[in-house]
Amino acid sequence: RVVALILLLCVSEMRAETTRYSVPEEAERGFFVTNIAKDLGLTGEELLTRQARLVPEGEKQYFQLNQHTGDLVVREQMDREELCGQSEPCLVRFEVLLENPLQSFRAEVRLTDINDHAPVFLNKEIVLKMPESTMPGTRFLLESAQDPDVGNNSLQHYSISSNEYFLVYTRQRSDGRRYAELVLDRALDREQQAAVAFSITAVDGGTPPRSGTALIRVIVLDINDNIPVFTRSLYKVSVRENSSQDTTVVVVSARDLDSGTNGEIVYSIVQNSEENFETFKINPETGQIRLKKPLDYEEAKTYEIDVQATDGGGLSSHCKVEVQVKDENDNAPEVIITSLTSTLSEASPPNTVVALFNVRDRDSGDNGRTTCELTGEQPFRITLLTTDAYALVTSETLDREQVEEYNVTVRARDQGSPALSASKTLLVRLLDVNDNAPTFTQAIYTMVMSENEPAGRSLGRLSATDPDAGENARVRYALVPTSTGTLAAASFVSVDAESGTVRSLRPLDYEKVPAFEVRVRAADGGSPPLSTQAVLRVVVRDENDNAPVLLHPGPDSSAAGELVPRWAPSGYLVAKVVAVDADAGQNAWLSYELAKATEPGLFRVGLHSGEVRTARAVTERDAPRHRLIVLVRDRGQPSHSATATLAVALVDDFSDAFHQLDQDPSSGRQPQVAEEEMLTTYLIASLGCVSSLFLLSVLVLTANTLCKARVRAELSPPSPSCYADRDFASDGVGVGSTGTLSPAYRCEMYLTSGSGRKEFQFLRPVLP
């Protein structure tokens, strides 16, 4: 029963031979047709795995496939006459579609006719008029019975009830239809019997056979010895389909040699089919045949019309008219979608099947030949599967972020003149996959927080976007764990996972942490999630929370002693107050002022340098000891300050330098005993210092002439009143960058050879 020839298909090249089956019409729902799995050489599990399904040629599905067993059964009863009319064979076509890989098998089921219709006469009574002179053997064409069945189930023969005058013969037309001819077997005699009535029965060849009957009434007329004669026994004409109503098809003509009423001819169409009755009409006087309605080539390609000419005496003759319908391109192609995937993943590879469709054109020849194409530039293409069967597949990779959905228009065009076309638009939506990582709006985010700012303050907000959709576009933020050495920086701030808001976790000290960086991550909600990173740089804004710190004179000394010769001119450098401030910017800008002095007019302090100089020349009237209080103030708001105390002694030479420094200018007591006891100690110390300084001076002068740079590198640390070229540092804190120290001073020492007491002469600054 089954002849199946299966060929594996791929989307680019698909060929298949048709597998044929047969099913009786009117088969009940669930009627077993065949086992597709066996015919294809597959198992039921393979059918299920490969998602086997049926794709009908038309819009209606008459069969159903069980994917578990492979059985093909009837889904809905089918009436062969309703589907195909008189056409034979009556075929219902469909395709079996398999996926992974894509395969297509074309099959057709032939509906075998059952005898479910009996022959029917359009007129239940047929009236014939015959002259009594009609010769035995004369034949009369009778109205045909209609039976929509085909083959043996169609009308097979006619019979009449028993009578004395007539016989019936069954004849067959060129198209296979059978009609009845009534033959006069015995001469009529109107005087004996003016009318003859009998029944005619049409019988089909079904099992059991079905039949239909009609009554024939023959009226016997008086003698009319000439019958009408047609000029032609067969008329062949062609008419274009869609010709308008009342279009003339042909004019038939007959002559009768009789005169008078017996020579008057009336034309009529013998109603041998309901189709002819509904389509054609004839002028009974002229014999002109016209259309009752437009012709449709797709419904009927040819018509056979039997025309009867009857004279006034009741004699008649017949001719045949064959009408050929010429096809016109009056049917646009039809695009019939048989399978559609309306949602498609954007990760689908090229050649993914989106839809299956057929193109049908009811015209014939070039008018029925079609081509198929897509309109516009889109990532799809059409692949021919079999004749008039196509697949819409992807031609390249898809990206939902660029285009979320496509309106794919399939246009079918025939080759008629003018060509007709039809379009079908398919909506294909793309499903998102997580193929895009979030993107920060900035590679580096810089935020500022104040020093000592309490925890919980918002510093700013991170922002990242993800072009994906749904959970794939939901961005969450987090700090990136780093190496052990930078864990402390990550504990300074927190990032809100949802909003990206950055908040401080604890107060920070600018002097310890002026700035820090952490890495932040933005991850989406896809599976697996994608992420990206950015740098978060937090700058701590300095607050004025540190007072200036004195480097010279030292903060642990009550007062620093300085020697000033009596001959010192105005502007003589007495000392330099050196201070630093751990703050930054304006908070670390220091200014110096003389807050208090024994004699305010004698000394002045550089506002920015901190240098204490004589405001005028020293005179003999000036007090030998002075106490200066220098105020160091920063420019912060509010400002902080510190004070340095200097003890200045005005001396004539070095012999009384230490004596002067030992006296407190604010004290009026001068203990003579203490002075005498310390005099010897001072002299010994002075001699030692003179000797050491002399040797040191010789070495310095010698080395300076050889290599200045090396001398600077090898010089011993400066004394409190002498500063090196390098930046001053204390306890590892750099002060060179604060801008509070003026250029360094280098001092040279000289010994006098003429001093009998071997005392030091005063130092003078030598600018480098």
UniProtKB/TrEMBL annotation:
It is a single-pass type I membrane protein. Residues 15-121, 122-230, 231-335, 336-440, 441-550, 564-667 form the Cadherin domain. Pfam families: Cadherin, Cadherin_2, Cadherin_C_2. Keywords: Calcium, Cell adhesion, Cell membrane, Glycoprotein, Membrane, Repeat, Signal, Transmembrane, Transmembrane helix. One of its GO terms (cellular component) is plasma membrane. It is found in: Cell membrane. Its main location: membrane. The chain crosses the membrane at residues 679-702. One of its GO terms (molecular function) is calcium ion binding. One of its GO terms (biological process) is homophilic cell adhesion via plasma membrane adhesion molecules. It comes from the Eukaryota. Residues 1-16 form the signal peptide. Potential calcium-dependent cell-adhesion protein. May be involved in the establishment and maintenance of specific neuronal connections in the brain. This is PCDBE protein. The gene is Pcdhb14.
